[in-house]
């Protein structure tokens, strides 16, 4: 039997992950490299091969059968020479910082997590890992502090579970309701604050359309409404006065789209429904379950929804130190969907693990100098070293870096500490995390976040197993300076 790779070019780390997942799933087979993949000899269970991520097909004699991943990535005629990352419901809504779904699935294979296992993602974002667990027949729980992330994640999972044809039928109802929809004037202070904020970022005509659409969607089948709201939310920035490609809130200089908002919504919704219907043909019965919860992963000891569940595996792509302003850039969606008031945006941003905002610098500096969070000596001393490197030549952003990094380490230590009691003994925890750097007083400091997290985990009930370097995608344009300089997969296990 031969495992055939996909038609696109692989990064070196993808070839390594491909080799690892095959050796874990086929521990008794003999491997021989071929031009297109790997030939297996010996004891081989062909049914297990369907779990593979980095192989598109299984060839046995003259018969070639596509793997599940091969089918998912080619849905709707996707180009075979480009890796598809928006298959299934993954493309419902853009979300900065989400990790590649292939990596999430490969991790589950490499860690040998069985069908029916219980998995947790403490920084679930828009639900990439939750969706991949559902594809594999696993039960996954995710937590995130960002209300929009939780909304999108649950919208994806709910859409995947809907009966075939239901979304398309309900879309027709939404478009009909839109024609007669009326928007009521706000009757309370919160409603007025929302309306005033949105009016500052949208032309009157466009705002009337998106508000009528929201009214029409909210009258739709409750099972379908989240997906349609997510589709509309994903279009908001393109039709606002916000620069659509800048993560900061800056006024756009480019013209607004020529296509009307409602036409763009219908086209996008139909494309998503078509992709989802094809996915359901590949996955006729979704065996796994999943749900995202709005909860701070630093306080999992207070998460009553876990119900004492012990997890077989944890995986996540956590933020890195001084992360990008994810809440700030998503404020239009947060306010339009009613997930946050305009006045709540800045406080929410400052609460994120890895936030770049410091609301009480004096208190933060005291915590750093006195090691108030009782961090391991290496992490505490590193933050002190950065603090002592500062001079008057450093601007306010750079002067905040040591404080932010200390707070980030403290936050991640809390995650390791509060997650550990919810894991089975020996259960693995895989983290995909990036390294970055800062320049203080003209000197460059590389922040080896993967190594720091491995040491923080070891101090809080975990054993560091290995760290696997991953080559990152190069970023250009607006965010080159913010880009991570490398990534790694850190694997630790619960003691």
TrEMBL record:
A single BP term in Gene Ontology: methylation
Location of the Ribosomal RNA large subunit methyltransferase K/L-like methyltransferase domain: 95-149
Top-level taxon of origin: Bacteria
Coiled coil ranges: none
Cross-referenced PROSITE patterns: UPF0020
SUPFAM superfamilies in the record: S-adenosyl-L-methionine-dependent methyltransferases
Record bears the keyword Transcription regulation: no
Keywords (A to Z) from UniProt: Methyltransferase, Transferase
GO function term, MF aspect, one: methyltransferase activity
Keyword match Transferase: yes
Protein name: DNA methylase
Organism: Rhodanobacter denitrificans
């Amino acid at each position: 039997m031969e495992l055939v790779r996909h038609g696109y070019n692989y990064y070196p780390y993808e070839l390594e992950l491909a080799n690892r997942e095959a050796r874990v799933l086929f521990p008794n087979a003999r491997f021989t490299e071929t031009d297109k993949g790997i030939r297996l000899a010996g004891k081989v269970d062909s049914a297990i091969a369907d779990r593979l991520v980095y192989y598109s097909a299984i060839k046995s004699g003259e018969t070639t059968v596509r793997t599940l991943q091969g089918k998912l990535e080619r849905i709707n005629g996707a180009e075979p020479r480009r890796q598809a990352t928006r298959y299934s419901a993954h493309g419902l809504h853009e979300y900065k910082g989400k990790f590649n779904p292939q990596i999430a699935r490969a991790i589950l294979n490499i860690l040998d997590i069985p069908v029916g296992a219980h998995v947790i993602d403490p920084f679930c974002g828009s639900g990439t890992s939750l969706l991949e667990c559902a594809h594999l027949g696993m039960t996954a729980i995710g937590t995130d502090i960002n209300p929009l992330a939780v909304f999108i994640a649950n919208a994806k999972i709910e859409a995947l579970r809907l009966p075939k044809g239901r979304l398309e039928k309900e879309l027709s109802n939404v478009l009909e309701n839109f024609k007669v929809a009326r928007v009521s004037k706000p009757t309370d202070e919160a409603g007025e604050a929302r309306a005033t904020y949105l009016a500052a970022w949208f032309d009157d005509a466009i705002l009337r359309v998106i508000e009528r659409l929201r009214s029409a969607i909210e009258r739709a089948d409750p099972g379908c409404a989240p997906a349609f709201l997510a589709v509309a939310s994903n279009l908001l920035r393109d039709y606002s006065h916000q620069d659509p490609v800048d993560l900061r809130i800056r006024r756009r200089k480019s013209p607004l789209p020529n296509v009307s908002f409602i036409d763009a919504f219908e086209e996008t919704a139909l494309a998503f429904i078509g992709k989802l219907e094809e996915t359901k043909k590949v996955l006729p019965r979704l065996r796994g379950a999943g749900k995202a919860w709005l909860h701070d992963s630093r306080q999992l000891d207070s998460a009553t929804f876990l119900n004492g569940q012990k997890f077989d595996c944890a995986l996540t792509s956590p933020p890195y130190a001084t992360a990008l302003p994810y809440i700030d850039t998503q404020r239009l969606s947060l306010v339009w969907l009613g997930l946050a008031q305009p006045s709540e945006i800045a406080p929410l941003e400052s609460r994120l693990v890895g936030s770049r905002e410091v609301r009480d610098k004096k208190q933060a500096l005291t915590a750093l100098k006195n090691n108030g969070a009782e961090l391991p000596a290496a992490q505490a001393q590193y933050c002190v070293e950065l603090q002592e490197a500062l001079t008057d030549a450093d601007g306010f952003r750079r002067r905040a870096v040591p404080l932010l990094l200390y707070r980030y380490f403290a936050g991640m230590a809390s995650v390791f500490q509060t997650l550990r009691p919810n894991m089975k003994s020996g259960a693995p925890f895989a983290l995909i995390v990036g390294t970055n750097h800062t320049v203080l007083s003209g000197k460059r400091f590389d922040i080896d976040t993967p190594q720091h997290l491995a040491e923080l985990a070891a101090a809080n009930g975990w054993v560091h197993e290995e760290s696997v370097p991953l080559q990152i995608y190069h970023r250009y344009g607006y965010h080159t300076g913010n880009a991570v300089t490398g990534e790694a997969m850190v694997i630790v296990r619960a003691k």
